[in-house]
Structure to design on (299 residues):
């Protein structure tokens, strides 16, 4: 195993190939792999909610659920690290089910307390491995039924790569999701595939422009500058909504508005927050920073 390999490398004098940093990293990944099993039962996960905002009105139109893992002795571990591990060792199945269930229950509670005339949705990330489970759709239907949440209040996010891997099966699954009333968003759009022809094969409602595009908008990088309006016009032609991810500056917001981008998400507006802070925004007890009034953002 890894530890023995280290010792051997020392013994035959090839000490330079033994990389202590790499060894540590490998050991801690193995450790995380083990610790992830059971972390659901030990209640170590929690959910945060990041506002999705109308760029024209600065109103919160929805939230994206983002999972957090508090490791007992390593503290907060990024989902960028543990989600891929959970996908490999299968923990994503119970974890993903828990995330979907909690999100539906939470959203239903919000709906029930929502001020008159207000309407929001919730976005939940779904991994490819979850989608490929034969009982994904019946379990999904059951989660909706038990929570009482109407499918229309929910969107699922998945990446392009998940769809491309298995076009026919995925098209069938996405159609069944749609039959539940649930809408479909493509996450991190633009990072995966150069061919756009696959878009026609799936019932897609929303494109989320990856934050790497947003980040490069104001740095005068031609490719990204040109691509973002192209993505927006493709989406419009196909009657999809567009959400720009990772908006961090008023200048990025201004450019995206100029391009006619309808929705956005990012630290400029708000970081992922607790459920009670999220409800504060819905109920009107709290407000996002104002980038929409007459003189906002003109500085
Ligand atoms: P994602 O679905 O694309 O989520 C957006 C990520 O961008 C989140 O990171 C969010 O905190 C971050 N973000 C939002 N606004 C900004 C910004 O203005 N600037 C920057 N630099 N980052 C911003 P997070 O929460 O660390 O999640 C990372 C990824 O982990 C997610 O990317 C998603 O792929 C995965 N993930 C998170 N939660 C879940 C989950 O519940 N289920 C599954 N399957 N995957 C999840
Ligand atoms: Mg997402
Ligand atoms: Mg994303
Ligand atoms: Mg991402």
């Amino acid at each position: 195993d890894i530890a023995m390999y280290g010792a051997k490398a020392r013994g035959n004098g090839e000490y330079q190939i033994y990389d202590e940093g790499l060894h540590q990293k490998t050991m801690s990944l193995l450790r995380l792999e083990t610790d992830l099993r059971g972390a659901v039962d030990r209640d170590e996960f929690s959910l945060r909610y990041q506002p999705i905002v109308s760029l024209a009105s600065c109103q919160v139109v929805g939230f994206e659920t983002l999972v957090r893992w508090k490791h007992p002795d390593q503290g907060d571990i990024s989902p960028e690290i543990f989600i891929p591990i959970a996908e490999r060792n299968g923990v994503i199945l119970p974890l993903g089910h828990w995330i979907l269930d909690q999100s539906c229950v939470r959203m239903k509670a919000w709906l029930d307390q929502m001020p008159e005339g207000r309407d929001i949705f919730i976005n939940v990330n779904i991994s490819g491995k979850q989608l490929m489970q034969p009982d994904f759709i019946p379990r999904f239907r059951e989660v909706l039924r038990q929570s009482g949440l109407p499918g229309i209040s929910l969107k699922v996010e998945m990446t392009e790569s998940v769809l491309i891997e298995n076009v026919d099966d995925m098209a069938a699954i996405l159609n069944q999701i749609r039959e539940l009333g649930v809408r479909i968003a493509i996450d991190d759009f633009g990072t995966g595939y150069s061919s756009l022809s696959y878009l026609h094969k799936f019932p897609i409602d929303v494109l989320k422009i990856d934050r790497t595009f947003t980040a490069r908008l104001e740095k005068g990088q031609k490719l990204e500058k040109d691509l973002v309006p192209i993505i927006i016009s493709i989406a419009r032609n196909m009657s999809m909504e567009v959400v720009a991810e990772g908006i961090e500056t008023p200048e990025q917001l201004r450019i995206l508005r100029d391009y006619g981008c309808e929705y956005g998400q990012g630290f400029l507006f708000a970081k992922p927050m607790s459920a009670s802070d999220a409800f504060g925004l819905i109920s009107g007890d709290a407000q996002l920073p104002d980038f929409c009034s007459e003189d906002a953002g003109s500085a």
Remarks:
- The chain is about 45% helix and 20% strand.
- The mean pLDDT is 90.
- The longest strand covers residues 60-71.
